[in-house]
Amino acid sequence: MKRFSILFFALLIFGCKNEPKVENLSADDIINKSIEVAGGDSFNKSEINFDFRDRHYYAKRNHGDFLLMRVTINANNDSIYDVLTNAGYERKLNDMINVVVPDSMITKYSASVNSVHYFSVLPYGLNDKAVNKTLIGEEEIKAKNYYKIQVTFDKNGGGEDYEDVFLYWIDKESFKVDYLAYSYNEADGKGMRFREAYNERYVNGLRFVDYNNYKPKDKSIKLQDLGKAFENNQLELLSKIELENVTVDLIDLQ
Fold first, then answer.
1. Phi, psi at residue 39, to the nearest 5°?
2. What is the pTM of this model?
3. PROSITE patterns under this entry (predicted)?
4. What whole-number distance in Å separates Cα of residue 153 and Cα of residue 118?
5. Is 40 contained in some domain?
6. Per-residue pLDDT tens for 103-155?
């Protein structure tokens, strides 16, 4: 009987030691893993070019310093350069002539340029100081399990649209962002969008995706419920977000 007891406790201890550990990840942990899978620190020393809806975009990032540019060809075949840096915004004609932009339009143009570049490299950028991340649960979409992260922004440093709220569905195994949703202010209330990632590709180690861009058919659907609404065919496809001719140069810019 004594030998049986010793054997029983030995097996119990051995079994406990070999039980898989449950990893309790915070929102920061999940976002960090997601950024790493997408390219990690390489974003911080990159030059990225791509085309989007008949405009060319260029981004240069150097460990906190940045230059984000949009090039538009107008009806006169002139090139309009909208440039956003740490120092602010400026517009040039044919990359030479400075264009005076009214103060009322600077915020609009800056936000427009920043928005395209912001979405192009997600989840990079979600560790900025003005970003607040909360793990609000887990959810299954199309038979895959996801962490569900809510992102809000501080007023100070959060940009013109700091009141927007984002949700990210991050695959629990691959830590890739497969879906995202956000709410934004409209004249008649809150607007919402849901995006489904597709056409994943890695360019020089950095992950890029395109998106199917949806809106809810029923305006009463809440932001937190857009994942289930997508599964239940309660969303309407508005557009496709497609980045073309993506190139990446990784340079030690310091």
1. 145, -15
2. 0.86
3. PROKAR_LIPOPROTEIN
4. 14
5. yes
6. 989 999 999 999 999 999 999 999 998 899 999 999 999 999 999 999 998 87
